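Throughout our pipeline, every protein is held as a single compact record rather than as scattered files. The record that follows is passed on verbatim for readers who wish to inspect the format:
___
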Amino acid sequence: MTLLLNVDDLHVHFLSPFGTTYAVNGVSFSLHPGDTLALVGESGCGKSVTALAIMGLLPTRSCQQIGSIQFQGAELIDLPKKSSRLLRRGSMGMIFQDPMTALNPTMRIGEQIAESARFGLLLPRKEAKGLALDLLERVEIPSSRFYDYPYQLSGGQRQRILIAIAIAANPKLIIADEPTTALDVTVQGHILELLRRCQEATGAALLLITHDLGVVAEMANRVVVMYAGKVVEEASVEKIFSSPTHPYTCALLESMPDLDRPRHRLPSIPGSPPSLRQAICGCPFAPRCPHAMPLCREKSPPGATKEQSACWLYREEL
C-alpha cells in the first residue's frame, strides 16, 4: 500500500539567545491511509513538536528542521511557505490539545467551522455554512448553536468543535494532540467514539498523540514510544501491551491501574526526563533505568526499528 506520510530521521532544534533546545532527535515513522498510529511518552518528549513540524506550524526563524517529512510523496521540509500551504490545505487536519486557546474567542463557532471548509475545499460562503451546519450535527451539537461563541460551550463541546474544524475539508491525515485532556471519563469515551466514526467516514489516517495508554489500547493499530525527543520503541499495539522490550515502555505500562491486581501503590518512574538544552551522552533513559549498564551512559544505542527497541539490553553488538 502506498505510504501517506513518511517521517525519516527528523530533527527539530529551537534556537534562542540562551542556547539550542534539541526538541526532536532523529524521529522516524510512517503512516498508510486508514492507519491509526499513537505517539506515546511523557510531557516534553517531543510528541507535539513532531506533529507541529508535520503541519508546518513551527516558527521558521527560530526553528531548524533537519531530515525528511514526505506527505503523499512530496517533501515538506524546506518547502516554500506558499507551496507548503497549498499542499497541506484540505489534506491535513489537526485537533489541538487545548480547545479554549485553539478556538478564536471573537468568532462564532459555526463561522470557524465554515472558514475551515471554505479555505480547505474552496467553497462559496453559502455552501460552507451549509456544510458547517451539517458538521455540527455530525459532532452531536445542535445546529441551532451555530452562532454561539466558544465561551458558551463546555469543554467537551469545544473539543467536538475542534473535531468538526479538523474534518471539514475531508483530510487524508488527522492529527489529534491529546484530544481527551482535562475531560471526564464519560466525555472522553464520547470524544473517542466520535473521532473513530469521523475517521471511518473519511478514510483518513489518524496520528494520535497521548500519554494515556488506555486510549492507545482502544484506538491505535501501532505505537511509537518517544523519550527525550527520540523513538525508543515501535510495535503493534498488541506487542506493546503483551511483550514490551524497552525499559521505558515497561515502566509506562506498570504505572497503569489494573483492576485485576490486588490494591497497591502504583509504581512510578524515578527522576525526571533529561533537559533537552544540551546534547545527551549515552542513552537518555539511563539515569532512570533499573537495568542501566556502564555502556548505556557512554554510548547511545542504535535507533529503534520495528524489530528492535533502542536499548543495549537487546542488541547483538554486546
